[in-house]
Amino acid sequence: MKTLTLSLLALSAGLLVSAPAAADPDYRKMAMEMVKRDFQPKGIATLDRLDHDALQTVCNRYDNNPPEQLMKLMEADQLSTVKLPADGKLMGDWKAGDKLAQSGRGLTWSDGLGTAVGGNCYNCHQLDPKELSYGTIGPSLLKFGKLRGNTAETQKYVYSKIYNSKAFNVCSAMPRFGHAGALNEKQIKDLVALLLDPESPVNK
Amino acid sequence: MKTTVIAGCLALMSIGAFAQAPAKPAAKAAKKAAVAAPAAAAPAKDAVSAGIDQYREMLQDGNPAELYEARGQELWKKVRGPKNASLEKCDLGLGAGVVKGAYVQTPRYFADADRVMDIETRIGWCITQLQGIPEAEVKKRPFGSADKPSEMEDLVAYVITQSQGMKVNVSTAHPKMKEAYEVGKQMLTLRGGPYDFSCTTCHGEDNKRIRLQDLPNLTKKEDTQRAYVGWPAYRVSTSQLHSMQWRINDCFRQQRFPEPKYTSESVNALITYLAVSANGAVYNGPAIKR
Fold this sequence. Notes:
A: 9 helices, 46% helix, B: 4-stranded mixed sheet, 12 helices, 44% helix
């Protein structure tokens, strides 16, 4: 894992030299340096949050549209970070999942360390048709399980997608909830159930 | 009227609705139709958005930002600080003492300070230079609360109100302004933090929402114009006036970033990008929002 990340970094560094940048490199560099100077830690939001990992570096560098070869390597690397549950069960409780999907809290400087982190789902997605207050940054997930089928393969995909969205769409707008340590195994299982359980309102 | 507004407000809040409305200039009901026009340009209406529109209309009928403006005017003229001076000789870019029209021409490069300053940065500069009040004091509590607004919020409300009816007109002719604009534009797309968010994660496409909150596409002129003249604003849900520096600060909070320092180059670069993109828009604030 570590080796792959490092070799990817080397590869992306190589491409950085050879490929033309989407943005003017000087202003981009100035913006990054300025941010480093001008931000201060507050509450749980510490300054290490300004450090870019390999994925953020690549997405920033290529305006969220990296070359095909790099994209495939990065996605494979992100997929390798996904830790599937040891017990092999990917479906939890859709009711707990729906509660989690409603909450947009967590990880801001006004949240405490003890703040329960929400799934943020309704911020960007339509899920339960009865919930009218949903966002549209992500696709509608209405009837997701009904359309996709509740197969072992789909469960694995949904679990992995929530754990690390970038494994399937390298510069996706969606956070890497599991990878970032925002949601734990049980919580992701509950969200899988919200999307795939035939009894979930999402599939009614 | 107040009861209706509150009832309408509660009804909409209960379903998590958000509304945005440009402000009605003080006692200028005649302008109401023209001011409300941008909001009416929304796409096809369902029951929820029709409710939001109705709420927006009700918000037009009184803007508590006027109280901030009155306090700010008083504070502007008040003699205080170690130098026993008022702010009446403050140069906001159009010459010492000229307040009218100054806001819509900021951010601006100020040679005396050798930096790009937005309106708050400049007001703070005048407080330190003219009144001799230390910078640390100015920056101590820039964002107030509903119970206790900050002096800066009052001063901002006064200054920006003196640009009502004027067009945003921010020049990038000075190299430092051009640089601030370009750096701000880059900052807009810079991803980072635990959720990999940039400004454009939410503000980079047309017709997107978080929950029911419409999100301006800040890479497009028309949306940026509407967004820019919508701040500073009095927010009904927090019962207070929020400045542009606060607006950017709270965006970074929601982005899960650490905090940008008040009136720092970074915040001013972003505001410069937004202002230049909004050039030509008529300013009628302070706005009033959900």
